[in-house]
Amino acid sequence: MKKKLGISLLIALMAFGTVSFDWNLVSAQTEEDIEQEIKELENEQLQLGEQKKEVQNNKSETEEKIEENLNEQASVQSQIDSLDQQLSDTKASISAKQGEIDATNKEINELTAQIDELTNQIEQLKEEIEVLLERITDREELLTERLRTIQRSGGALRYLEVLLGSKSFSDFISRTAAVNIMMDQDKAILESLANDKKEVENKKVTVESNKKDIESKRQDVEDNKVALEGQKNELVALENQLDEQMAERQILLAQLEEEHHHLEQYVITLEDEQRFLAQQEEAAKKAQQIAEQQLAALSQKTEGTNTNASSPNAGTGNFIWPASGSRTSNFGWRVHPIYFTKNYHGGVDIGAPQGTPIYSSGAGVGVVSTAEYHPSYGNHVMIVNIIDGQTYVTNYAHMSSIAVSPGQQVEQGQVIGYIGSTGDSTGPHLHFEIHLNRYLGVNPNTTNAVNPINYLP
Fold it and tell me: Are 43 and 293 in contact (CB under 8 A)?
């Protein structure tokens, strides 16, 4: 009990101004007790100094990771931009290739129409040839029959009889002319039919040749279409591949951005730790100065001082509940009520109406090391108590208002603020933490926060 009262007294006397002594409390300790407390405070300062170096190293390493993260983000973003450009170019190529395929289809359709037209022409020419052949055959049969008749009746004499049978010279002339005309007509008809047949056959050959050329051209165009569709399919496959790569890069970028956010939050936490450690270190120095002054004063105290007297301010327990209300959230892992992610809760929450008083929880007298606004904690107060040689740092968060200031000494049960919902909060409540030795944040891997329920009555 003496050590608890002594260290609490040192912290209570620590203020940033004039120091006065309550000699009834001073006499409650021996020089040996105070010397031991001074050693403990010196050791505490050494530990705080080492912790500050460690936090600074962590901060430097984290800042390097942030720089690496940003560089990687820039690299991934560059890859995304490149992929985006490739996707844009590929889509344009696909569109152009589709345009070529459409033009090819149109050309194929036109060539097919030409082939159909030529096929019709060929069929018509075949019909014309058939008609001419029939006429030639008929004419040839007529001439053949005429020749047979002439042959049966004496050949050329038959024509002579026709001529000699004329009744007059004019009749002879007429008959001669008629025979010549008939023979010339037969000859002309045969020649004309032969020429027509030859012309139609030539035309048929030309049309069939044209048809073959167009069919060959259509085959070339169809082959080109197959090649174009193959190229388009390759481009579509490339587009799908680029889409997959883009999705992968975007996922990676999102992960990097999330990692960057966590790293930045960690840096902020480390900066908070640096500031809190500096405040606690300053408190330890002041406490050591006061203890040294107390030791000097005790050595000059008259022998009549009763060194075995007990302090009238002795508390009945190390911690009390810091506010009246109901416990709404426990210490440990939980789902964050705002961000809905798995989160380590470094204290307990006490729900109470806005403005409910908040009391200093630690036994004896402590010193306010922090009284300020924090983005996460909101308005919060941190108090250092040394109880039975053990240093405790208590944290009271989300206050509507703060009733104390840094460096101020506070007794157990003293009002230090009022319930609120500042910072990351979903409603009026007190978030209460207890840390052993010093505040090191609430990262589950490095924190020295303990479950307050194990220390409260």
Answer: no
Render pLDDT for 256-271 as a digit per residue (tens, 0 to 9).
898 888 888 778 778 8
pLDDT, one tens digit per residue, over 335-390 is: 777 666 778 899 999 999 999 999 999 998 788 989 999 988 999 999 988 888 78
CATH of 37-305, one of 3.80.10, 1.10.287, 3.30.1890, 3.30.420: 1.10.287
Q: Which residues contact 428 (CB under 8 A, 6 or more apart)?
A: 351, 352, 353, 354, 356, 398, 400, 419, 420, 421
The three-state secondary structure class of 27 is: coil
Indicate the DSSP class of residue 420: B
Q: Where are the domains of the chain?
A: 37-305, 315-457
Grouping H, G, I as helix, E, B as strand and the rest as coil, residue 34 is: helix
CATH superfamily of 315-457: Glucose Permease (Domain IIA) (2.70.70.10)
The strand pair at 409-411 and 365-374 is best described as antiparallel
- Which amino acid does the sequence have at 44? E
| Strands in 255-377 per DSSP E | 326-329, 332-335, 342-345, 348-351, 357-359, 365-374
Q: Where does residue 348 rank: exposed (0-12), middle (13-18), buried (19+ CB within 10 A)? A: buried
- Tell me how crowded residue 196 is: count the other CB atoms within 10 A of its CB: 16
pLDDT confidence of residue 153? 56
Instruction: List the one residue out of 255, 307, 280 whose CA is nearest residue 76.
Output: 255
State how far the alpha carbon of 297 is from the alpha carbons of 35, 38, 311, 366, in Å: 13, 14, 18, 22
pLDDT of residue 303: 45
> At 284, which amino acid appears?
A
CA trace torsion 233, 236, 240, 246 (10° rounding): 140
Dist CA 223 CA 160 (whole Å): 73
Nearest partner of 431 among 409, 449, 406, 448, judged by Cα: 449
Closest among 263, 141, 145, 122 to 201, alpha carbons compared: 122
State the Cα angle at 30 between 314 and 365, rounded to 5°: 30
Sign of CA dihedral 169, 172, 177, 180: negative
Helices marked H in 153-168? 157-164
pLDDT above 90 covers a percentage of the chain that reads 23
pTM, full prediction: 0.49
